[in-house]
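Deliverable D2.4 — example input (structure tokens):
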């Protein structure tokens, strides 16, 4: 038999034939005629398929397992994709992807060239809004609902759509979510088709209270109850103004007493809940009632779910298997890679904890990422000086600014990609006032499987343009240890310390970090005597962890008789202008390299060279991330794609010299380690 024919007949889905209901569902319209009992079975099979998938790919498992029933119910009740379902953040959408025509590709999740770990508009029409940062769904959903209404007014044949925004209890803590809800009640008729589903998976507001809660939720979403409220509202309007307002308040507070929804009612939402998010019977009936309701205004449906639901290893784990590596489905045991050097995050956290023992002015702030930033260790050692403000980066920054005004030494630890959300606060509340807030900028540079949404590509550019900020980037874990100690001692103004995701180089670390001079770089390798065509030779000035690849490139160039000078800038701001001028005067080619976008360190260096006239005498070549987003892959592959690896550095140098040699792969010889 022809090999191509065999490939076509081979099932692309390894579990095909295992699930009676799931195998019949390729698209949501295949679910519309299923009974509630069939939907329950479908949910169980979908949960099993999700577990099997993530066991082979890794990823965000706990959140996906928590919304299996909700996902099934939403697609069974609403006319997706015409009706829009927006998933806040998007890390809980693996079941959604399986039900929306992507089951045959689900095992490419977060793999090179495969499905994104989040929603993505270019991936499917069932992903109406791309997201991987939190708290955006209500704003986007409200915009869609209003747009549908405006289109319907212009075109009578256009059917207004339901818009459902699913947002977690953590995400709804952010100010943007409340800004959207506050605006929804004033957006006019279009907002009436907006349904916000509050996915409360931490029992943080109120758990369901049994049969009575179920009965009340279904009652308040029913047509009879809604008609009764409409009748009461019409009668109230015939009363004098003061009595009408009193009647409206009485209705709202009576429902608030029963359900805990007074806050949302005050924001203009019709509140339904709390509802058991794993009870398919409740979900389907309530969602149908809300789908068919008219003129009740925007709705908030409060759903209680459990992260990791239905998979005992996840249910019993402290983090509910929020993010996992590949694992054994039967035991839940995650596959661990070989032990290696400590991560940059852990090196930073360890030094901070050590110094806090003798400096009670050190305080730490994180925005819902204690373990991701390493501050969980600080919280355990010094709980009174640790503050998790929830998903509220703007508040975190200004909160830290307030602490700094009173003489504390605040460390605001936020991923580079999330710090973007607080840019105005960084500029106005910290930098403008010259307050000594220390920004520990984790996940700087490319981040691997989380892709472009989580990449720390822009912080050098967006922070480096601010007057008076100090911006450091360690080339290895030893440098990070020293820079952490330096940041603690630096009280002259705002400071950013950016470091990458992943492990260090395995360097030996002393017990304590040493303070380094602000704005001073270092020569790591001196240029050897040149035997090539250029007497001036090559200088490579690296900012951050690209130094390791710069040293590999130096070995490759040395093999061609072009051994370069390699320097570690250490600081993007203030620049070590003496070092830059020395390199420019004594070399024919000057290359800068950084793990950041155009407009960052290379631009700062080029501006200085232009102002001093040195740009006229040196062939300057800045190497940055390309002016596009880099898709998910391994970090090594991403930097190769970005043209920031040793081969790319070597070829940039050779091209600048006009030497007709092109390298395609690095030499086997390893680079010497950096000199302190």
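Example output (designed residues):
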């Amino acid at each position: 038999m022809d090999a191509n024919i065999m490939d076509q007949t081979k099932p692309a889905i390894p579990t095909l034939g295992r699930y009676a209901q799931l195998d019949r569902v390729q698209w949501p319209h295949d679910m519309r005629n299923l009974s509630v009992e069939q939907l329950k079975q479908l949910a169980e099979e979908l949960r099993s398929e999700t577990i099997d998938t993530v066991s082979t790919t890794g990823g965000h498992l706990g959140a996906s397992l928590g919304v299996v029933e909700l996902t099934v119910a939403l697609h069974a009740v609403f006319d997706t994709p015409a009706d829009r379902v927006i998933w806040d953040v998007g890390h809980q959408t693996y079941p959604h992807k399986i039900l929306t025509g992507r089951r045959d590709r689900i095992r490419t999740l977060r793999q090179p060239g495969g499905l994104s770990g989040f929603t993505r508009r270019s991936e499917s029409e069932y992903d109406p809004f791309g997201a991987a940062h939190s708290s955006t769904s209500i704003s986007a959903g409200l915009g869609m609902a209003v747009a549908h209404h405006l289109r319907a007014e212009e075109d009578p044949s256009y059917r207004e759509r339901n818009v459902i925004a699913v947002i977690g209890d953590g995400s709804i803590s952010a100010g943007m979510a409340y800004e959207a809800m506050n605006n929804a009640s004033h957006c006019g008729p279009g907002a009436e088709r907006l349904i916000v589903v509050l996915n409360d998976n931490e029992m943080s507001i109120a758990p369901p209270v049994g049969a009575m809660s179920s009965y009340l939720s279904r009652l308040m979403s029913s047509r009879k109850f809604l008609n009764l409220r409409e009748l009461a509202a019409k009668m109230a309007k015939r009363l004098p103004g003061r009595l009408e307002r009193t009647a409206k308040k009485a209705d709202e507070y009576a429902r608030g007493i029963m359900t805990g929804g007074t806050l949302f009612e005050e924001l203009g939402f019709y509140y339904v809940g709390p509802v058991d998010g794993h009870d398919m019977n409740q979900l389907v009936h309530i969602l149908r009632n809300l789908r068919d309701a008219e003129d009740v205004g925007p709705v908030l449906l409060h759903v209680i779910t459990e992260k990791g639901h239905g998979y005992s290893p996840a249910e019993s784990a402290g983090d509910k298997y929020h993010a996992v590596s590949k694992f054994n489905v039967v035991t839940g045991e995650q596959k661990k890679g070989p032990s290696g050097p400590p991560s940059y995050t852990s090196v930073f956290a360890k030094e901070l904890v050590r110094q806090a023992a003798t400096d009670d002015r050190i305080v730490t702030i994180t925005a819902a990422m204690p373990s991701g930033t390493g501050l969980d260790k600080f919280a355990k050692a010094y709980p009174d000086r640790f503050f998790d403000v929830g998903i509220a980066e703007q508040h975190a920054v200004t909160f830290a600014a307030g602490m700094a005004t009173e003489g504390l030494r605040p460390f605001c630890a936020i991923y580079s990609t999330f710090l973007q959300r607080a840019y105005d606060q960084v500029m106005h509340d910290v930098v403008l006032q010259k307050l000594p807030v220390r920004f520990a900028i984790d996940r700087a540079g490319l981040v691997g499987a989380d892709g472009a949404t989580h990449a720390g590509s822009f912080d050098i550019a967006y922070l480096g343009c601010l007057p008076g900020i100090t911006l450091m980037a360690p080339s290895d874990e030893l440098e990070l240890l020293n820079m952490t100690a330096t940041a603690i001692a630096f009280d002259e103004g705002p400071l950013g310390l950016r470091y990458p995701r992943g492990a260090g180089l395995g360097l030996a670390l002393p017990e304590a970090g040493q303070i380094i001079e602000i704005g001073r770089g270092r020569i790591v390798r001196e240029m050897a005597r040149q035997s090539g065509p250029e007497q001036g030779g090559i200088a490579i000035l690296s900012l951050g962890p690209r130094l390791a690849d710069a040293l590999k490139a130096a070995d490759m160039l040395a093999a061609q008789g072009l051994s370069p000078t390699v320097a570690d800038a250490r600081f993007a701001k203030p620049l070590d202008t003496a070092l830059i001028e020395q390199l420019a005067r004594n070399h024919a080619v000057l290359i800068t390299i950084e793990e950041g976008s155009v407009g960052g360190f290379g631009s700062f260096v080029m501006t200085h060279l232009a102002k001093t006239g040195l740009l006229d005498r040196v062939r300057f070549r800045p190497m940055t991330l390309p002016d596009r987003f880099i898709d998910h892959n391994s970090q090594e592959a991403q930097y190769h794609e970005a043209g920031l690896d040793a081969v790319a550095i070597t070829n940039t140098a050779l091209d600048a010299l006009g030497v007709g040699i092109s390298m395609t792969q690095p030499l086997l010889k390893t680079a010497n380690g950096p000199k302190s």
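The longest strand covers residues 194-200.
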